[in-house]
Design goal:
2 domains, 7 helices, 13 strands, globular, 6-stranded mixed beta sheet, alpha+beta
Length: 316
């Protein structure tokens, strides 16, 4: 019997051969990295020597299927990976092209628990950069109406938020909005629009986790107990096919309404709402939603609880 290490290499090579023939891309990439026995830090180092800059987080997302290389720089990295991992020329590029042609494979994978934790850590750093004094920014949300627009390419085209807040300390003059784009999005290409009773301040983004944070500046300083209404929007449209929208709540609060409106050229087959206690918890509270004549579905929570709430949809 051959040594265990040899057996391991034989199995890894067989898995790689199978993945290169049938895909999908992320499985082939993961198999190639495993067959060569390279940690992601070493893969990143080799890419740098080829003149391509890709973060370890992005490499991890690629091999998990959470994101796919799409930008020109990313495609350069894929071609370099074929050489670094000693793969046949165009083998990984071909799998990416096949995925682009197959609607089923264009579906972005749901964010893993690890990915959500990484995004949470990034969010904390971005908020710190903006000098966020407390997790809630000094206000309690009394009402939040969120309107999501799904475009003709089935993408998250944008969203609009209407907030009613009450200050619980003196001197509040801003609100920090957070937007999590779909896997594959490019936050640096998104646009924040101040629509009513606010102005856009500083904006910070993090492409690898799809996080954008933006200041909405008020024209007045609120005293404790005073309320304020404001409205803003985020123009997105930078990712691929969208299949759900999720909103997280760190604590109990006021009313929340979520509306998802679909372009007439991209109507889903089914829609449903769901709840989740935390990113690591299973989803529950599933209820089917009927798509109305105005091409939209919605949910309303009179008083939100800590956790996550969202709407998902199937295209076929």
């Amino acid at each position: 019997m051959p040594p265990a290490t040899t057996q391991h290499l034989d199995v890894a090579t067989a898995e790689l051969d199978s993945a290169l023939r049938g895909g999908p891309f992320h499985v082939a990439l993961r198999a190639a990295i495993a067959a060569r026995g390279l940690p992601l830090q070493r893969v990143q180092h080799h890419l740098t020597r080829h003149g391509v800059k890709v973060g370890v987080t992005s490499l991890s997302y690629w091999q998990q299927g959470a994101r796919r290389p799409q930008r020109p720089e990313s495609l350069r990295a894929v071609r370099a990976l074929e050489e670094i991992l000693r793969l046949p020329e165009e083998s990984l590029i071909r799998l990416l092209a096949e995925a682009d042609e197959d609607p089923e494979h264009r579906r972005p994978a749901a964010r893993s628990y690890r990915a959500q934790v990484e995004a949470s850590g990034v969010l904390e750093r971005l908020l710190a950069e903006l000098g966020q004094p407390s997790p809630d920014g000094g206000v309690h949300t009394l009402g939040h109406h969120e309107r999501i627009l799904i475009g003709s390419r089935r993408e998250l085209a944008g969203r609009e938020s209407h907030h009613i807040v009450r200050a619980h300390r003196d001197g509040v003059d801003r609100f920090v909005a957070v937007h999590h784009g779909d896997p594959g999005c490019v936050p640096a290409r998104m646009t924040v629009r101040a629509l009513e009773n606010c102005r856009t301040g500083r904006v910070r983004t993090h492409d690898e986790t799809g996080v954008l944070v933006a200041e909405l500046l008020f024209d007045t300083r609120l005293r404790a107990g005073e309320t304020h209404l404001f409205r803003y929007g985020v123009e997105d449209g930078t990712a691929g096919v969208s299949r759900e929208y999720v909103r997280g709540f760190g604590a109990a609060g006021g009313q929340y309404a979520l509306q998802v409106r679909f372009d007439e050229a991209a109507l889903p087959a089914r829609c449903h709402r769901f709840t989740q206690h935390s990113p690591a918890a299973p989803r529950g509270g599933r209820q089917e939603l009927v798509l109305g004549g105005h091409r939209s579905v919605h949910l309303v929570e009179p008083r939100v609880r800590a956790g996550m709430l969202g709407i998902g949809w199937d295209w076929e």
